[in-house]
Write a structure and sequence with these properties.
With 147 residues, this protein is an alpha+beta fold. It has one domain: Pnp Oxidase, Chain A (Roll). It has 3 helices and 7 strands. Strands 1, 2, 3, 4, 5, 6 and 7 form a 7-stranded antiparallel beta sheet that branches.
């Protein structure tokens, strides 16, 4: 098996783990070094490179935190299905209009009432480095995926 095949399988496994989970907790590092978490709507957007995408305002506090310290954690949970996923990686702010248009979904109007015309709309791109997860199939022993 080649490395790219292994990676593709790991990304598919991650996609299956987070399938159907609409919200994640994104943790960033504040300027004083403290951790700051907030819920983020997740529209199922994980690409074939193992990258998570979230919509954000480019002027939000989380965007400023990511510009100073790129390390983030993203956590998903589905207690009813006994799935818990913790992702660590690096984030960057993306303001590319074409990328924003490509990833836009109507559900996002809840947070961006002007849609794609929202003046400070941006994407948070999370490059995944490691995934730890617990689920009923693993008998709640930690399993890891490195991307």
């Amino acid at each position: 098996m080649t490395i790219s095949t292994d990676r593709n399988q790991q990304i598919q496994q991650l996609q299956q783990l987070i399938q159907g989970i609409d919200y994640a907790m994104l943790t960033t590092i504040d300027e004083d070094g403290s951790l700051h978490s907030r819920p983020m709507y997740f529209n199922g957007d994980i690409d074939t490179n193992g990258t998570l995408w979230f919509f954000s305002s480019a002027t939000s506090h989380k965007a400023l935190e990511v510009e100073h310290r790129q390390q983030v954690s993203v956590n998903f949970s589905s207690p009813n299905q006994q799935r818990f996923i913790s992702i660590s990686g690096t984030a960057e702010l993306v303001k590319d209009r074409q990328e924003i248009q490509q990833r836009w979904q109507p559900e996002l109007e809840t947070w961006f009432p002007q849609g794609l015309n929202e003046p400070n709309i941006a994407l948070l791109k999370v490059n995944i480095k490691r995934v730890d997860y617990w689920d009923d199939k693993s008998n709640f022993h930690a399993k890891s995926i490195s991307l």
